[in-house]
Amino acid sequence: MSSRHPLVVAVIFGGRSVEHDVSIVTGHQIMNAFPAGRFQVLPVYIARDGHWYTGQPLAELKNFKDGGALDLDGVLPCLLSPDTRHHGLIVNPLAGRFRQSDVQRIDVVFPALHGSHGEDGSLQGLLELADIPYVGCATLGSALTNDKIMTKLVLRQAGIPVLADHWFTRDRWLEQPDEIIEAIRAEFDFPLFVKPATLGSSIGIGRADSPELLRASIDIAANFDRRILVEPAVTPGIEINCSVTGFGDDYQASTLEQPVSWDEFLSYEDKYLRGGEGMKSAERLIPAPISPELTRVIQQMSLDAFRAVDGRGIARIDFLVRPEQDELFLNEINTMPGSLAFYLWREDGISQSQLVDKLVQLALEARAVKRRNIYDYQTNLVEVASRRGVKGGKGKA
């Protein structure tokens, strides 16, 4: 990367997700973290309807206050091409007689999307097709960690402690609600937590202290996902979070934090609305007031869990802990943590600009490793099949 040709980093934010607003804030935090001159930051905004836009006015958070950002001069429709010849955005893709399409080449994509259609592997798959390096977990790791049910299956196989759970589909709930309630109550005592399988930011999550609240919480969660997860609450207990960054076999764990919530769990309002700056604004204790031994255990378990899901880039890994009993459970792996957990890495002497720089370098490293794979394997299969014909089943002419 030379000073004459700064690296073009496209920060993609917004998205077709219930976490749309959170993503806007995260995207602007990331864009503001890049040092001037060394990078050319390109804002790419995905509106709630799934339409894509780019243009420098989108780099100003104030332009989103009244919902009129898309009407500003310099904001243009675009799409990310999966064709490797473009290696970036097609700007004005539906160009007409008086408007010409243009190609904006991208060196690295920095996804800042939370939840559905972005953090779940869908955007990552598009970027793999386009052969554009990108920050964060690859398609498999993104899809896996976005799904709480699948994450637990993998972590249990890796020997990472997770809570027992009972999950079911929305269709089953609509057909057999009484049977599901009876099965849950046979397994667990109250209080319980009800969660959509694939959402973050505490959206759709409810605490149930009675059968009535359990039914109501499931009804709410069923609006956000087709699968619902029910877990026992860890009481008494605290939440401890650790961030992890790295790629391959080179991972680093951050200082730990203990979030302090006004309620029984960190709600959406606790995380994003009380201070207006994302998760870093919530009240927290850093470093977490736990023993050095437990700190080391959680940091090592965070590294092991990130490796188990083939993680790369950055994540925040959340634990539920009973310190008196030396008991802990991994609760969630968040591969696009709000504000990138800047506040944790700052405790380790890593600034925001250093962190985003490191994540871009990891993206380039991951792309270089992938390019060592062979993808062009030519045979005479098509020629043989064309001579024999392709009618019938396998092996039949």
Summarize the structure.
Helix content is 31%, strand content 23%. With 397 residues, the protein is an alpha+beta fold. Strands 6-5-4-3-2-1-7 form a seven-stranded mixed sheet. A four-stranded antiparallel sheet has the order 8-11-9-10.
Descriptive notes:
With 397 residues, the protein is an alpha+beta fold. It has three domains: 7-134, Rossmann fold (3-Layer(aba) Sandwich); 145-161 and 235-367, 2-Layer Sandwich (D-amino Acid Aminotransferase, Chain A, domain 1), CATH 3.30.470; 166-232, Dna Ligase, domain 1 (2-Layer Sandwich). It has helices at residues 20-33, 122-130, 139-146, 148-157, 170-175, 177-187, 211-221, 268-272, 292-308, 342-347, 352-370, 381-388; strands at residues 7-14, 39-46, 52-54, 76-80, 88-91, 102-105, 108-111, 166-169, 192-196, 206-208, 227-232, 238-247, 250-253, 258-259, 284-285, 313-322, 327-334. A seven-stranded mixed β-sheet has the order 6-5-4-3-2-1-7. The chain has a four-stranded antiparallel β-sheet with strand order 8-11-9-10. The chain has a four-stranded antiparallel β-sheet with strand order 13-12-16-17. The longest helix is centred in the last third of the chain and has 19 residues, at 352-370. The model is unreliable at 267-281 (pLDDT under 50).
